[in-house]
Design brief:
With 360 residues, the protein is of the alpha/beta class. The chain is 34% helix and 15% strand. Bound molecules: 7,8-dihydrobiopterin (HBI). The site of 7,8-dihydrobiopterin (HBI) has 15 residues, from helix 1.
């Protein structure tokens, strides 16, 4: 960003499906924290608006009361646009409308219709970081409207995610960034595999469990059990699998345990927009075995920092696990440092904001 541009005053508006720190927000919670820190490091002033009970160290938080939003990925393509009574999302954006004069730019992290619909009604520019691929017709339509009326304001985490939208060429790929100082390199892992994520059908945990059962290697599982029936079904289907559910841990704890793994298994059923957990693994020196689907295909260097396998093929997961000794753990850490540090992300964000502010 040219030095002429004074530090920016930025208002970041969180996802509204859960309080920050609850894990219900999934990847976007970590993304929001990392983006806030990346921008603070560069002198920008950050305020985050989030639902009540949100916690996020080191950033000024405005917490807003109201009913949480239903998660979009559990709806169908023709799902109607819904807002609960006393919607926390609506209350957050009412706050933003009132306080927008205090900011140079607003940044939306919610994958919901309202923030996109109200964009033309605001005086201040709004940057939208879209956290998932195409899920519903209503969201596709409202995001496309903003992309056409406010060119350059829509960003995504990967080309694969962008390509799920008809307006892919209107989407700016900012990838993601992480505070790598929080992740410690582990040279010698234990005899264990890892799976990390929201435990929900779109994440395909059952395939990782099936693979672990075949190879007989313990599989450690971390993340919020978002869909209890789904989790119970896996336990019923694989009663003898060597799995160990280890809960939802804060980053400092998670990275220590994840780092001790021989590999991270990523088995998404959907087009994972990015795959934050892949970077967290690489940062600890842990190679990634992932389905060739969505964001992880743009992260994993096949044969060097992990293996990409045919989607939904448990047998391919098994054969990749047998080839882990060909991968180089230090190369995994080096890749995280080269492409996904807070500094690398800060550069991409400032370029995005500059492109938006130049147009206003
Ligand atoms: N659903 N309606 C809705 N709004 C969100 O912001 C949202 C979501 N589902 C998942 C989600 N955000 C986050 O887990 C993203 O990181 C994917």
């Amino acid at each position: 960003m040219p030095q002429s541009r004074h530090p920016l005053k930025l208002l970041l508006l969180s996802t509204s499906v859960g309080a920050l720190g609850s894990g219900l927000g999934g990847g976007v919670e970590l993304t929001l924290k990392n983006i806030a820190h990346a921008l603070q490091q560069r002198g920008h002033q950050i305020t985050i608006v989030a639902p009540s009970n949100s916690v996020l160290e080191g950033v000024f938080l405005v917490t807003i009361a109201g009913e949480l939003q239903t998660t979009a990925q559990t709806q169908g393509r023709d799902a109607p646009i819904t807002l609960p009574n006393d919607s926390v999302l609506a209350n957050m954006w009412a706050y933003a409308r009132q306080h927008q004069p205090d900011y140079d730019l607003l940044i939306n992290f919610a994958y919901d219709w309202l923030p996109f619909y109200v964009t033309p009604f605001f005086d201040r520019p709004i940057a939208h970081l879209v956290s998932m691929g195409s899920l519903t017709d209503a969201m596709d339509q409202v995001i496309e409207q903003v992309a056409l009326e406010f060119p350059g304001t829509i960003a995504v985490h990967s080309h694969a995610q962008a390509k799920t939208f008809e307006f892919a060429d209107q989407c700016r790929n900012v990838q993601n960034g992480f505070d790598l100082s929080l992740y410690k390199f582990c040279a010698r892992p234990k005899h264990q595999l890892a799976w990390v994520g929201r435990i929900a059908p779109e994440k395909g945990l059952e395939d990782a469990v099936a693979a672990a059962q075949i190879v007989g290697t313990p599989l450690k599982i971390w993340g919020v059990i978002q869909d209890t029936a789904y989790w119970n079904q896996i336990c019923a289907d694989y009663p003898d699998a060597p799995i160990d559910y280890c809960g939802f841990l804060p980053t400092s704890e998670l990275q220590h345990r994840l780092g001790q793994s021989q590999a991270l298994l990523m088995t998404p059923r959907w087009i994972e927009a990015f795959g934050n957990v892949a970077i967290e693994a690489l940062a600890c020196g842990v190679p990634v075995i992932a389905y060739r689907r969505g964001g992880p295909t743009e992260i994993v260097r096949d044969g060097e920092t992990g293996w990409l396998v045919e989607p939904d093929r448990v047998d391919e997961l098994v054969s990749a696990i047998s080839k882990l000794d060909r991968l180089d753990r230090p190369a995994c850490r080096r890749q995280a440092e080269a492409e996904y540090s807070l500094d690398a992300m800060g550069d991409r964000l400032e370029a995005w904001f500059e492109a938006i502010l130049k147009r206003v």
